[in-house]
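Quarterly update from the structural biology core.
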Amino acid sequence: QVQLVESGGGLAQTGGSLRLSCAASGRAFSSYAMGWFRQAPGKEREFVAHISGSGRGTYYADSVKGRFTISRDNAKNTLYLQMNSLKPEDTAVYYCAARDSSWPSSKRADFGSWGQGTQVTVSS
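Predicted structure, tokenized:
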């Protein structure tokens, strides 16, 4: 099981940008499809974006499409989420997750490893 640590969360204003990072400790990082999920208080953890092991395949939730970009640097064992044009409804704890497969998924149950989360707050 890969260990994951998120960073880069913080405060932003509406229309601003943040970049989240997720550092992975483990072998064969490129063998794991990766995903970003988020959870606001009182709400279910929801899918944000996922990326294939190679980084060539990506998919986004409709709520963030065109604003967020998921990417990875396999040489650095790091996953990224570039968040632009932030909205107050983007406020949540953001989690990175790893799947024991190179093929991505948008389902929470398909990801076996999770980071501790990083808070993103967007003010209006």
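The mean pLDDT is 95.
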